[in-house]
């Protein structure tokens, strides 16, 4: 399917054979259509809070002949899963900011086994939430799509890698272990530069200065080790 962007394709790769999946904020429903066509997912719920995109989704689903596998739901976030008999193996939340995703995650419940999350902003607040909620990291990917670097995470309630500390929250417990990941290095070199510039414009007495300086130091330390020691 040529309309599946590298980012959406990476999300699809994190779905395991035979899963029951929900795509929250599906918009055009390209991802659910791909998952249905590919035969990977057993059933996909394509949801959106807005009627307009969901109508487009319905049309696309019908055009691709996958209405037997993809069901559309007009709903805000994941509340609809709470009093439901459906058990979701994976719940995808992508293409929104971290704040909106965290709002949706307030309704996390036992009917959802795992989440595949790809914010179009920072993944750090999501990892922080996952640590607090004792989620395990199953997979982490960093990709470039249309000159934007995205981090994607799959977390679940039962098995995987723990998020232990601030370093894990910032860099990801799995991504930081990858040797020679050029995109990872590029992302954090750019972030370091951004923070160094920001520090020039925040008064030193400001609380934000301390926080920014602390983060910049953590990033610079990791980068120095990577570049100098090739750790
Ligand atoms: C930019 S699109 C992202 C589409 C697709 N998920 C992607 O990653 O390309 C965001 C979509 O999320 C929907 N959305 C925003 N907040 C939502 C919420 N709380 N619950 C369900 N859908 C939501 C919007 O209506 C919009 O269609």
From TrEMBL:
Keyword terms of this UniProt record: Methyltransferase, Transferase
GO BP annotations, alphabetical order: methylation
Keyword Transferase: yes
InterPro entries: SAM-dependent_MTases_sf, TrmK
Molecular function GO terms recorded: tRNA (adenine(22)-N1)-methyltransferase activity
PANTHER family, A to Z: TRNA (ADENINE(22)-N(1))-METHYLTRANSFERASE (PTHR38451)
The protein's name: tRNA: m1A22 methyltransferase
Organism encoding this protein: Spiroplasma cantharicola
């Amino acid at each position: 399917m040529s309309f599946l962007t590298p980012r959406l394709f990476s999300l699809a790769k994190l779905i395991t054979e035979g899963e029951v999946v929900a795509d929250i904020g599906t918009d055009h429903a390209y991802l659910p259509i791909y998952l249905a066509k590919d035969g990977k997912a057993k059933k996909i719920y394509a949801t959106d809070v807005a009627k307009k995109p969901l109508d487009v989704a319905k049309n696309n689903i019908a055009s691709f002949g996958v209405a037997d596998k993809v069901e559309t739901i007009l709903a805000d976030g994941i509340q609809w899963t709470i009093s439901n008999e459906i058990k979701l193996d994976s719940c995808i939340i992508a293409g929104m900011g971290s704040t909106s995703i965290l709002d949706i995650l307030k309704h996390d419940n036992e009917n959802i086994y795992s989440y595949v999350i790809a914010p179009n902003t920072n993944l750090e607040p999501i990892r922080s939430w996952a640590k607090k909620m004792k989620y395990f990291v199953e997979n982490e990917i960093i990709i470039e799509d249309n000159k934007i670097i995205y981090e994607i995470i799959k977390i679940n309630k039962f098995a995987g890698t723990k998020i232990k500390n601030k370093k894990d929250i910032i860099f990801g417990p799995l991504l930081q272990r990858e040797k020679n990941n050029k995109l990872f290095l590029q992302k954090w070199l750019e972030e370091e530069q951004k923070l160094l510039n920001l520090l020039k414009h925040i008064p030193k007495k400001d609380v934000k200065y301390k926080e920014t300086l602390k983060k910049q130091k953590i990033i610079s330390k990791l980068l120095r080790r990577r570049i100098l020691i090739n750790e």
